[in-house]
């Protein structure tokens, strides 16, 4: 996603290197509400506060780097999704985005369900008191232990992902004397990315069972139809619906439209072939968020309306009763609610290029830039500055040149060691994908609400690292 260069008047303006940047913002101190959590503001003193707490105080109390999560915003997003979809639909938060006991409690209190995709996520959900019937278990290679634990706990939904799994879940449920509600995950031949979707050949992936097999609905004689047949024959499984997830960080609803149409095509086929109307459709997650002010995501009520309309239209056209819809947003709930707070260490000005600003974290707390070429924004948050914009690259402290946090950003030219920077929109897929590379200690997650801050995931210690090292 390359953007036009030639910003007006930044430092290093004579020779502008290749990069993904637009003109520097008119005011480097401004905080664009599209990328910052709801309660973030710049105080009259010049520093930034969240939930009424000055980030300098947070850095002092909790150290840096730290993920700072705006609990008010997190809960508000849960409510916005729940209210947008209403009582006839279910919102399953995708725990892979970020999960902790506190988050599970927030979800529970705000009336959301939870999608887990591993034994660890399931254990966290159950430990924190999420009712099992509000949990869905995903995964393309669930272990026997994971299946057993889920069935035993009584999870509301297991999303079946392969023929082997149909047999394994059926066997486990029969052995435990249960009838396990299941959905079948299908691949609809659509893959969506941000502003576009591609509707060809995306059955070539590890997830789900392909619908493909011809016919204009796309719901032909593929493995998905065969999976339905098999599940319907098994007494220990209750087939409740069909599941489709088409990708992540999507802004364009067209991919969902194709997906819904094809899933409804399969429901129609199931009715015609087996005389059964499946009562549920899950269209997965994947709704995009703003990482930079150039991103323009849709609001939950627009998404709910678009998806609801598509499903209703398709079902009416097919003469089907409209099934109960569910969705699984992860990033769209957690992502915008947190920023990562870093302290500036060294600065290197490369004449005619840019200034490398090193912070005290890096690819161990945010792998997304290195892995996906993701774009982020960044701001100086410990003070305001009237200095001119300086073309910068925010990098970490790891022994790797790809250790980039924010590839292209404008920061004030008077930036100095000891300043605090914050990178917004790091609530999803940052802590959950963090590593101990170079024996880095994974940062804490600090939840802030109404002038109170508390650690919900503590910082790792060297002791934690050494405890695992039993040689
Ligand atoms: N449901 C299913 C079945 C999924 O596989 C996923 C994400 C979600 C829901 C939630 O998607 P979301 O609403 O968060 O986009 N690590 C990548 C994202 C991987 C998403 C995998 N599946 C990243 O950092 O961008």
UniProtKB/TrEMBL annotation:
Q: What class of enzyme is it?
A: lyase
Region annotated Disordered, chain positions: 1-28
Task: Name positions with the PTM N6-(pyridoxal phosphate)lysine.
Answer: 96
Pathway per its UniProt entry is: Amino-acid biosynthesis; L-lysine biosynthesis via DAP pathway; L-lysine from DL-2,6-diaminopimelate: step 1/1
Entry annotation: catalytic residues: 399 (proton donor)
Q: Which cofactor does it need?
A: pyridoxal 5'-phosphate
Q: What is one process in the GO biological process aspect for this record?
A: lysine biosynthetic process via diaminopimelate
Q: Name one Pfam family in it.
A: Orn_Arg_deC_N
Orn/DAP/Arg decarboxylase 2 N-terminal domain sequence ranges: 73-334
Entry binding sites for substrate:
331, 368, 372, 400, 429
Assembly and interactions? Homodimer.
Similarity field: Belongs to the Orn/Lys/Arg decarboxylase class-II family. LysA subfamily.
Give the function comment from the record: Specifically catalyzes the decarboxylation of meso-diaminopimelate (meso-DAP) to L-lysine.
Supply the name of the protein.
Diaminopimelate decarboxylase
What is the protein's species of origin? Streptomyces qinglanensis
UniProt gene name: lysA
């Amino acid at each position: 996603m390359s953007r036009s260069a030639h910003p007006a008047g930044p430092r290093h303006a004579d020779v502008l290197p290749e990069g993904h940047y637009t003109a520097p913002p008119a005011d480097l101190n401004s905080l664009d509400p599209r990328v910052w959590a709801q309660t973030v503001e710049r105080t009259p003193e010049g520093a930034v506060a969240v939930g009424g707490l000055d980030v300098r105080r947070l850095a002092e109390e909790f150290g840096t780097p730290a993920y700072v999560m705006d609990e008010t915003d997190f809960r508000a997003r849960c409510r916005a999704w729940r209210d947008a979809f209403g009582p006839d639909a279910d919102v399953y938060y995708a725990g892979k985005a970020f999960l902790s006991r506190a988050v599970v409690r927030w979800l529970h209190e705000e009336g959301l369900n939870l999608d887990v995709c591993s034994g660890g996520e399931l254990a966290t959900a159950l430990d924190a008191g999420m009712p099992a019937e509000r949990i869905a278990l995903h995964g393309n290679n669930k272990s026997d232990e994971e299946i057993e634990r889920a069935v035993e706990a009584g999870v509301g939904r297991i999303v079946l992902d392969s023929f082997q799994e149909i047999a394994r879940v059926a066997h486990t449920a029969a052995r435990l004397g249960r009838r396990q509600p299941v959905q079948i995950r299908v691949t609809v031949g659509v893959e969506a990315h941000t502003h576009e979707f591609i509707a060809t050949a995306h059955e070539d992936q590890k997830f789900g069972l392909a619908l493909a097999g011809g016919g204009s609905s796309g719901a032909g004689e593929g493995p998905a139809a065969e999976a339905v047949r098999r599940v319907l024959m098994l007494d220990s499984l209750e087939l409740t619906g069909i599941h489709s997830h088409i990708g992540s960080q999507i802004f364009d609803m067209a991919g969902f439209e194709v997906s819904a149409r094809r899933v409804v095509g399969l429901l129609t086929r199931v009715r015609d072939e087996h005389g059964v109307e499946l009562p549920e459709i899950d269209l997965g997650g994947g709704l995009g968020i703003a990482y930079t002010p150039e991103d323009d995501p849709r609001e939950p009520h627009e998404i709910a309306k678009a998806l609801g309309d598509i499903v209703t239209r398709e079902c009416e056209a097919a003469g089907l009763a409209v099934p109960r819809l569910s969705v699984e947003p992860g990033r769209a709930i957690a992502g915008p609610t947190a920023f990562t707070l870093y302290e500036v260490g060294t600065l290197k000005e490369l004449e005619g290029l840019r200034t490398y600003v090193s912070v005290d974290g890096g690819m161990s707390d945010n792998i997304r830039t290195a892995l996906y070429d993701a774009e982020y924004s960044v701001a100086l948050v410990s003070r305001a500055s009237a200095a001119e914009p300086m073309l910068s690259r925010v990098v970490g402290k790891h022994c790797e040149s790809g250790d980039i946090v924010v590839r292209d950003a404008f920061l004030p030219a008077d930036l100095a060691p000891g300043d605090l920077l914050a990178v917004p929109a790091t609530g999803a897929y940052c802590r959950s994908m963090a590593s101990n590379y170079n024996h880095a200690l994974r940062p804490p997650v600090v939840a802030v609400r109404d002038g109170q801050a508390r650690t919900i995931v503590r910082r790792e210690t060297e002791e934690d690292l050494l405890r695992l090292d039993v040689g």
